[in-house]
């Protein structure tokens, strides 16, 4: 009996290497620039140039290099995900959202646990903009499991806490969320097809889990409904970061090929 074309290994390989699929995957991979200073971050960018469009600037790098690193990366044509997890009184968060928007970032995070008034103020800060950045409400950090939540006074399971915070974010007018791979399928059902779900805790097979608790492989997260995948150490700490990124892109392309 002949092998159906879609199951033929050579056909599958061709689809994985399809330029269109790889380009689509490249636009959904966010590389986390968890670096101690601007020089180290820009060295990473240079080493994987061409392998991704998105870079995440988090607390470590932003504290060391400030807004200038965001402006430099944006000037080079990259899309910037500013991951500062804003959490303060509504007026302060709204001001921070406006300031970050002026830097040219395309996505930014704020803690959903800041409450509905804070989330609504952040959303209102973008009113009237023709092309506003995507606001992402952080639900439960991927480093937290049930024991960590309990220690913080939360008796719900991680999944239940994620669902509660996501429902609150949707009510406040947000449609973007950060969640672990374990909750992405449920959040996709809540947020619908227009929801933007950014998923950290991504580890290709064989990678060290590090301090992450709720993990998944790239293909599994995409199949469950992730919009973007955030990958840090498996790429930036690899001996060959560009090759590590390309391997992940191929796994993503395979999942997207169906």
Fold and architecture overview:
- By secondary structure, the protein is of the alpha/beta class.
- It has one domain (5-257): TIM Barrel, CATH 3.20.20.70.
- The chain is built from 13 helices and eight strands.
- It has helices at residues 9-16, 19-26, 38-47, 59-65, 67-75, 90-103, 116-124, 146-151, 158-171, 184-191, 218-223, 233-236, 241-257, and strands at residues 29-32, 54-58, 79-86, 107-111, 134-138, 176-178, 196-199, 228-231.
- Helix 10 links the parallel strand 6 and strand 7.
- The protein is globular.
Q: Give helix % range.
A: 40-55%
Shape: globular
CATH evolutionary superfamily: Aldolase class I
**How many angstroms does the end-to-end distance come to?**
23 Å
Could you tell me the mean pLDDT? 88
Arrangement of strands in the largest sheet: 1-2-3-4-5-6-7-8
Give me the strand/helix succession. Answer: HHEHEHHEHEHEHHEHEHEHH
The second-level CATH architecture is Alpha-Beta Barrel
Low-pLDDT runs of 5+ residues are 1-14
Task: Work out the strand percent.
Answer: 5-15%
Structural class: alpha/beta
Q: Tell me, what is the CATH class?
A: Alpha Beta
Question: Total helix count?
Answer: 13
**Could you name the CATH topology?**
TIM Barrel
Query: How would a textbook summarize the main sheet?
Result: 8 strands, parallel, barrel
Please provide the count of β strands.
8
Computed Rg? 19 Å
Number of domains: 1
